[in-house]
Design goal:
By secondary structure, this protein is α/β, with parallel strands linked by helices. It has nine helices and nine strands.
Amino acid sequence: MNATSIGPLVFANDRLHAVIALAVVLLVLEVVGRRRPALAGPLHRWGWHLLASWIVAARLGFVLVNREAFADAPLSALAVWQGGFEPIAGLFGIALVGLAAIVRCPAVLRPLALVVVLAGSAQAAAGWIFPTEAQGSLPNFALSDLGGTPVRLSETDGRPMIVNLWASWCPPCRREMPMMMELAEAQDDVVLRFANQGEPASAVGRYLDQEGLSDTHVVLDDTQRLMEHFDLLGLPSTLFFDAEGNLIAAHTGEISRAELINRMQELQETE
């Protein structure tokens, strides 16, 4: 859906865009450095400054915008692999590096500008080739709860729904589930379901008991029909549906508290 498999690795497409842009940065720095050996050292040094400034500034901007979500777990701000960057804030970081380069090493300005333009162009092209848009709707088939009672995800009582696909053997699933269940219990405007993939009820129940987690929102998808239905490549995957059951977003990989809260607020606005 919005992820790409490269050999054994699965990348969410938005992260794949960043990987491609990073590869272009490194490639351009290497090519220009080889063509202009005298500039290679300073160029590589300032190139890494440029990259680090964007990451730090963009991440800091995201944390500040979502400071309430990070207040309860401030160290989660360091979990950059979960995503969460403000591109405009990142541009301010790049601008600061540019100003410093003007003062200390003006010879690298033109190559650095080339790096920024080509990396930005590569990311834009990657966004077109590997889109992040999600399409689909809640399926009509029934899953079951741990007691064997049929549960139809399409029956949402007119509320938006979030479906998290998980498994007990999946480390990112285990990390994010307590936070997601906490948010599920704290509100009832959005329905949350945790669809276990391919494990028997006994194993799921045992895991939930060991971790002190509730089975209230858990359903079993023992044949992994949801993964097939939505063409998902990896776990965890989180799907976001509006009140009409239309899929409006999908997240592949571990999701942060801030991202989940933002998505929940967006869903509430669709009601």
